[in-house]
Design a protein that fits this description.
Shape: elongated
Radius of gyration: 27 Å
Number of domains: 2
Distance between the termini: 59 Å
Number of strands: 15
Strand order of the largest sheet: 3-11-8-2-7-5-6
CATH class of the largest domain: Alpha Beta
Number of helices: 18
Low-confidence stretches: none
Structural class: alpha/beta
Length: 538
């Protein structure tokens, strides 16, 4: 049996931090079932950890393992508590997936945005106090985990505890489990993407046909934005600031879609569906072929020009899709130790591509758009909004963040206009420019927060995205498409819409899923697997 002093010390090492973390969550946020489950999981995991350490016969080894185990446990506890308090979300496998898909600049910018100096100093202080406290306690003369007693009972308790965590699914709240398991799951996921990449230009699409026999010259440009919400995009929305002045000048040349949402609030969830056959009814479709491969099979010359870094901790899903193009350019790869370059970087490469030989081209431009850190998305000379913005959250950080975001939107507007003008000056081609953002962003509009979550604490601004199409005169002369700008649409059907817009059909394309087609049928827009978006937010 453990003596009373040892039990008290174990409570100070494990129990008290668990209790304080739980109390901080329910005081500063809300009581949620997930947090109660996490509280129970932490208690069980601490018990299992102590029992495992207590079975080590060597006293010195036992002490070292307890110090190490207690330190790791408390670091994980501190991290998951901070994550919940900051993002009002439970740490999940999806959160770690996003880290694995992120490059060092994205991680650095994320940390600089969410970990200010006060947070860093507080974290260092808490970790120091935890470490010193653990050392003092385990060196107390009456602190003793006796390895010789009740071994069979300890083994039985450990086994029962682990089985309980597994079969109640409480294990999904365990941070060490997530950290160990998620990379394995991620590698398995990436293996499913082996049908993409530079060695796989084609898929198994059946009966691929390019139905435009009238135009010998075709040029299609698809611009994939990042983290731009529709509310701050004045072309779409009656926003009080003019964030898209250059697009507004040619608004009569654009089809501006007013009710488009992303399928997810983060890139890793949204873009693999937008660019493949995947959707919420058929998520496995994202392994069955990409829009890039469909263009290849239709005998287009394909280009992928990206201002996003190609590598996270390994090749990303988006990188693999992009590398399926005949030519792929990852312009950001040369800036590993610098701040990410601005999106004007894509323009000169686009010029080169437009002047290459070939009469059927499709160019994908993957820009950074308004990806955080927003201040890094535009040059200082393009800082336009400096006044106090309108928001219910009256803090300097909110004011500065909104100004940075709106300036980033305005800079993106300039880039988009230049892209359209570059295509416009090639009148011999039937052409279009399609723009959409991968997902939206909350910028102190509905809640006291900027950024996006991993489909956890959600707002409509994280889903609502701008989308528009510009068509050349030559394209307009032969199109029979129907541009339903006020129809409800979700970007997991964009594969079908892009194929339709490009006059490509196959057994796999579905005109009822194309917002550009007279046969289009609105469908329920399901988010987070089960939630009807329109019912939830209306």
């Amino acid at each position: 049996m453990l003596n009373f002093k040892t039990i008290k010390y174990l409570f100070l090492i494990f129990g008290l931090p668990i209790l304080l973390a739980f109390l901080s969550e329910i005081i500063f946020k809300i009581v949620a079932i997930a947090r109660v489950c996490n509280f129970i999981e932490n208690i069980l995991f601490a018990l299992i950890l102590v029992l495992l350490v207590s079975m080590v016969s060597n006293k010195s080894t036992r002490k070292v393992l307890l110090i190490f185990g207690a330190l790791i446990f408390n670091i994980c506890l501190l991290f998951e508590t901070f994550y919940f308090l900051k993002f009002n979300s439970t740490l999940s496998a999806s959160s770690i997936f996003v880290v694995l898909e992120s490059n060092e600049v994205e991680i650095r910018e994320f940390l600089s945005l969410h970990f200010d100096l006060k947070t860093k100093l507080l974290t260092i202080f808490l970790l120091t106090m935890i470490f010193v406290g653990i050392l003092k306690i385990v060196n107390k003369p009456r602190f003793n985990l006796d390895a010789a007693k009740d071994k069979s009972l300890k083994v039985d308790t450990i086994i029962l505890g682990l089985l309980f965590l597994k079969y109640t699914q409480l294990i999904v709240f365990n941070v060490p489990y997530l950290i160990l398991k998620t990379p394995i799951t991620y590698i398995q996921e990436m293996k499913k993407f082996e049908s993409y990449g530079s060695n796989n230009k084609y898929s198994d699409f059946k009966n691929v046909k390019h139905n435009d026999t009238l135009n010998k010259n075709e040029l299609y440009v698809i611009v994939i934005g990042e983290s731009t919400n529709r509310k701050h995009f004045s072309l779409n929305h009656n926003y009080y600031r003019e964030t898209t002045p250059q697009l507004n000048e040619i608004k009569n040349e654009l089809y501006v879609f007013n009710q488009v949402i992303s399928s997810h609030t983060y890139t890793l969830g949204a873009l693999p569906k937008a660019l493949t056959l995947g959707n919420y009814e058929y998520p496995e479709g994202k392994y069955k072929g990409s829009i890039v491969q469909l263009f290849n099979q239709a005998n287009f010359k394909t280009y992928w020009i990206s201002n996003q870094k190609p590598i996270g901790m390994m090749d990303t899903q988006i990188t693999k899709i992009g590398m399926g193009a005949h030519k792929s350019f990852f312009l950001n790869a040369n800036h590993a130790k610098e701040s990410t370059p601005y999106d004007n970087l894509v323009l000169s490469t686009m010029d080169d591509v437009l002047h290459e030989e070939g009469n059927k081209k499709v160019v994908f431009l993957h820009i950074l758009g308004t990806h955080l850190n927003y201040r890094n998305r535009f040059p200082k000379k393009d800082e336009y909004f400096k006044d106090k913005p309108k928001t219910q959250f009256k803090t300097e950080i909110a004011y500065n963040t909104i100004n940075d975001y709106d300036n980033a939107v305005r800079y993106q507007d300039k880039i988009l206009r230049q892209i359209i003008e570059k295509v416009k000056v090639i009148p011999s081609f039937s052409s279009y420019v399609l723009y959409f953002s991968d997902h939206g962003q909350e910028v102190y509009d509905d809640i006291n927060f900027s950024g996006h979550t991993i489909d956890e604490q959600i707002t409509r601004n994280m889903y609502e995205v701008p989308m528009f199409v510009w068509l050349s005169n030559k394209y307009c002369l032969k199109t029979s498409l129907d541009f339903r700008v006020n129809s409800k649409y979700m970007t997991d059907d964009l594969f079908h819409a892009i194929a339709d817009l490009s006059n490509i059909s196959s057994n796999e394309t579905d005109s009822t899923r194309s917002i550009f087609n007279v046969a289009f049928k609105e469908r329920k827009r399901i988010i987070k697997d089960t939630i009807d978006y329109d019912a939830y937010f209306n």
